[in-house]
Design brief:
The chain is of the alpha+beta class and 276 residues long. It is built from four helices and 13 strands. It has two domains: 172 residues, START domain (Alpha-D-Glucose-1,6-Bisphosphate, Chain A, domain 4), CATH 3.30.530; 45 residues, no CATH class.
Length: 276
C-alpha cells in the first residue's frame, strides 16, 4: 500500500533563484525537518539519511529528469521506497509556485501508524514553508547547478513503480536512539507499576490474614495472682493480704481496713470502716 502527498507553497523570490537553491541538495538539512544528511554522489545520484516519526531511514535516489527552472523528478533505487517530482512555476516576475508530488511506501508498524496520522504529509508542508522562509530571508541562492538530465524524456511524475528496485528493501530502517530510549523508559515504567501493584496485592493479603487471625484468636488468660499488702486501719496492729488479678487488687472481705471486716483486739470483735 502506497501513500501520495501533494503540497505547494508560493515563494516571493524570482523563479531562477528558487530553482537554483533547490538544486543544492546538500543544503536540505538546513530547512527540511528530519533530513539529517544528503550526499550528492554525482550529477544524477544522491544518498539520503532522514528520520521521521522516530524512524531512521536511508536510501539512494537517482534523478530521472531535471529541467532548469521547471522540474526535478527522482526515484529511489535502494532503501526506503519513494519517488516524485518538484515543479517550479513563475507567479509574476518576483514570485514562484513550488509544487511537490511524492509517493512513498510505508514499512513496518511505526511508519504505518505514522502514515495513518498523516505525519509525512504534515512534514512535507512544514518543509516547504521552511524552504520559503529560508530563501526569502536571504534573497539569493547558496549555489546553483543549471545542468539538465533527460530533458526530453518527459517522464511525468514518477510513482513507486519507478522505484521498483527499492521495493522490499528495508532502507536500513531502524529506530532512532530517542525512540529506543522512549520505549525503554515506557517499559521501565510498566515494570515498576506492575511491581508496585503486586506488592500492594501481597500487602493487602497479609493484612487480611492478620485480621482473620485476630478475629478468631482465643481470649488471653487472666493475669497471674500475686500477693499485695494493704495498709491497715490505724486502730489495728494486724493486717492481712489480698489478691491481685486481671482487674487489679481486690482485698478479701475479711481484711482489715475494708468496710465490714472483723478485727480482733483483746478477744473482742469490733467492726471498723477502714481505708483501702
Amino acid at each position: 500500500m502506497t501513500t501520495k502527498v501533494e503540497k505547494s507553497v508560493q515563494v516571493n523570490v524570482p523563479i531562477s533563484t528558487v530553482y537554483n537553491q533547490w538544486t543544492q541538495f546538500e543544503d536540505f538539512p538546513q530547512f527540511m525537518g528530519g533530513v539529517q544528511q544528503v550526499t550528492q554522489l554525482d550529477d544524477q545520484r544522491l544518498h539520503w539519511v532522514a528520520e521521521i516519526a522516530g524512524v531512521k531511514r536511508e536510501w539512494d535516489a537517482t534523478i530521472l529528469e531535471q529541467v532548469p527552472d521547471q522540474k526535478i523528478a527522482w526515484a529511489a533505487t535502494e532503501g526506503a521506497t519513494n519517488a516524485g517530482a518538484v515543479y517550479f512555476t513563475p507567479v509574476g516576475a518576483d514570485a514562484t509556485s513550488v509544487r511537490l508530488s511524492l509517493e512513498y511506501e510505508p514499512e513496518g508498524l511505526v511508519e504505518t501508524v505514522g502514515d495513518k496520522l498523516n505525519i509525512v504529509e504534515k512534514r512535507a508542508q512544514a518543509d516547504l514553508e521552511k524552504f520559503k522562509e529560508f530563501i526569502e530571508s536571504s534573497g539569493y541562492a547558496t549555489g546553483a547547478w543549471r545542468g539538465a538530465v533527460n530533458e526530453s524524456a518527459l517522464v511525468g511524475t514518477p510513482g513507486v513503480e519507478s522505484a521498483q528496485s527499492s521495493r522490499g528493501d528495508s532502507g536500513k530502517a531502524g529506530l532512532s536512539a530517542k525512540t529506543v530510549a522512549a520505549a525503554a523508559a515506557t517499559a521501565a515504567v510498566g515494570i515498576a507499576a506492575a511491581t508496585a501493584l503486586k506488592g500492594k496485592s501481597e500487602e493487602d493479603s497479609d493484612d487480611q490474614d492478620t485480621t482473620d487471625i485476630s478475629e478468631t484468636a482465643a481470649p488471653s488468660a487472666p493475669l497471674a495472682e500475686s500477693q499485695v499488702t494493704y495498709t491497715p486501719d490505724v486502730t489495728t496492729d494486724t493486717y492481712t493480704t489480698g489478691t491481685e488479678g486481671a482487674l487489679g487488687a481486690v482485698p478479701p472481705l475479711a481484711a482489715p481496713g475494708y468496710e465490714g471486716s472483723t478485727v480482733t483486739e483483746g478477744g473482742d470483735q469490733t467492726t471498723d470502716r477502714g481505708t483501702i
